């Protein structure tokens, strides 16, 4: 029993009223401050740490990264596939800096990473970058690899250079791909290979746009623009850059194997061999210029491909330069373009529908262009014997095209080079053979009938 007995009824009502009044005032205050806070800091601020979700977090990271890039004068440009795909010339011209409150449209995609390219030759490496990144709350993972510009058959070691930089913040990533200029006047980036000691969970490595393979690009012209309120450099012709990106796979020459080959079969350094190589090199450069101007993709074929694959050079006794072109890329003005460049047509065998082959006469060196036809799981090119009208067919397994460098030129080769070379030269491709007969030596040659005599004037043209 309470000694004072029950509380008087009137007191209870007053207490209740007081309680209601104070909580109402409290609520009003809360509402007032809520409104003040929102108008000052934006709605996001209220949700605390959670505001760094989605696009905002990405924007925040890009801002931090770009301020770091600015401080260290990193020559970076936007190289992100998803972001560049969102752009159209119009949006670039209409600088969205004119908007009062920019939104994160281009730099925030629904991926949790964004990619920048860094021009390695214009970059002065500064070790304090790591510290500065940490100060900004960014974790940095640097991936190094061999410098291919220093690797050659004489020096297989090479030194290590930074290939990829990964800046991480809140499980989001800025992937910086370092692009180095190589002797063929193109940009190269290395593959992204993790060392055993590295954290495999640092980034979604498999999803990244760059790094699965080494890649090669023409140097893009860059322009400064404003995207989502931030100043960024982008490739001026970003659709070209995107197109290059989808076919950028680069193969390094097999310097180690080539050095071993030359141990067994010392190189011919006679003046005649050197002279031939010099002429073949300038013919290759000239042919590349003509075909690139026509936008006709081509690759090293036959002996020229074998020379690159086996010995990273032209085979001095091969006597010609061989290129392959898909027949779908044939253009009627090819012959005229070569003639204009000082390479007259030497012979034309076959026709567009069947076994087309063109030869142009360079300075002591012949340029052979073989057109390739696709047929199910195989591809083939044709051959014609001028004096008998006999047709031949050279069959290869299907292949895709990769970039490589030969004699200071960025050129394509079949990515599946070993299969290609094996088809053409058999399992002993690694042994030099000087007596090679195109009608009988290749293991992939098939007899393919004879041209009808009435077609000879058209399909066998020798000049
Ligand atoms: C961009 O490059 C493509 C080749 O991929 C070319 O066809 C096009 O004309 C270029 N655009 C501009 C604006 O230069």
From TrEMBL:
User: Ribitol-5-phosphate transferase FKTN N-terminal domain spans which residues?
Assistant: 7-281
Q: Which UniProt keywords apply?
A: Membrane, Transmembrane, Transmembrane helix
InterPro entries associated with the record = FKTN/MNN4/W02B3.4-1, FKTN_N, LicD/FKTN/FKRP_NTP_transf
GO cellular-component terms in the record?
Answer: Golgi membrane
Where primarily located? membrane
The residues covered by the LicD/FKTN/FKRP nucleotidyltransferase domain are 296-340
Topology with respect to the bilayer:
Single-pass membrane protein
Transmembrane feature ranges: 14-34
Location in the cell: Membrane
Superkingdom of the source species: Eukaryota
Could you tell me the Gene Ontology terms of the biological process aspect for this record?
Answer: glycoprotein metabolic process
Q: Which family does it belong to?
A: Belongs to the LicD transferase family.
What name goes with this protein? Answer: Ribitol-5-phosphate transferase
Organism, scientific name:
Pygocentrus nattereri (Red-bellied piranha)
